[in-house]
Amino acid sequence: MTDKRIIRFGSRRSALALAQTKLVMEAVALADPELEVALVAMDTSGDRNMKPFSEASDKFGIKGLFTQELEEALLSGAIDVAVHSLKDMPMNANPALPLVAYSKREDPRDALVLPEGEREVRGGVIGCSSARRRVQLAALYPGIRIEPVRGNVNTRLRKLGEGEFSALVLAAAGLKRLGLEGCIARYFNTDEMIPAPGQGILACQGRAGEDYYYLDAVRDREAAACAAAERAFSAELGGGCTAPVGAFASLAGEEIEIIGLYADESGKDIRRGSARGAVKESMIIATKLAQELSRGEEL
């Protein structure tokens, strides 16, 4: 009798990251009983030094701070697969460490979270660290202060409960994966608040040249097509590192539609647009839309 092959899955230590990694591990284990799955959790530079920041001030790749240690573990062979929230992945991927699988998309929308018993925002301060969300919230709630909030999901919820903020805006996917859907007071549809590229999709990162057949257990064709389009849109605009960028793609048969958001670094010049075409040309369509919006051609 041979020993089972062990597949080591790397994850950040946050509750959300662990929950997401376990979803992938469980799917792989269920699909192939001949494999043994193991969890390797680690702290990242971003987790250790999470200072208040906004995407708009991210000139040095803040997203990479949450992936660096996992990528080093992949390169050293300490883990076989790293599981990430795709929206947290830098656009300029290391070719030695490709994204090898995308999960079926969870709810891509942003969600409004209010203190217990409240049904609407009543002034005060909305906590939100994403520049993309902030520029869109300013239009939805004119006159209400919007300030950065630091910490993981549970830390942010605690701050809300303690009265530091009157509302939070978080990704619906993360709340649902943590079993916190009951905290959501309102969902923002994807037209009124365009999501981050890849929001709701889990990305599995591996080593170039290796066979990741076992990740067929989580691979989703629609998510992969949408991810490619959304990331192409963001990459064309510089990766969303110095200006608010949003992108959301959806499929209807063999046709894809993408809606995009681009704003200047001040967040005052906001441009939205959409485009559609054949799925096989999704990246070309997304890139062209980004170029048009960057030139000020709102569509």
Automatic annotation (TrEMBL):
The modification S-(dipyrrolylmethanemethyl)cysteine is found at C241. It comes from the Bacteria. Residues 7-210 form the Porphobilinogen deaminase N-terminal domain. Its EC number is 2.5.1.61. One of its GO terms (cellular component) is cytoplasm. One of its GO terms (molecular function) is hydroxymethylbilane synthase activity. The keyword Transferase applies. Belongs to the HMBS family. This is Porphobilinogen deaminase. It comes from Cloacibacillus evryensis. The gene is hemC.
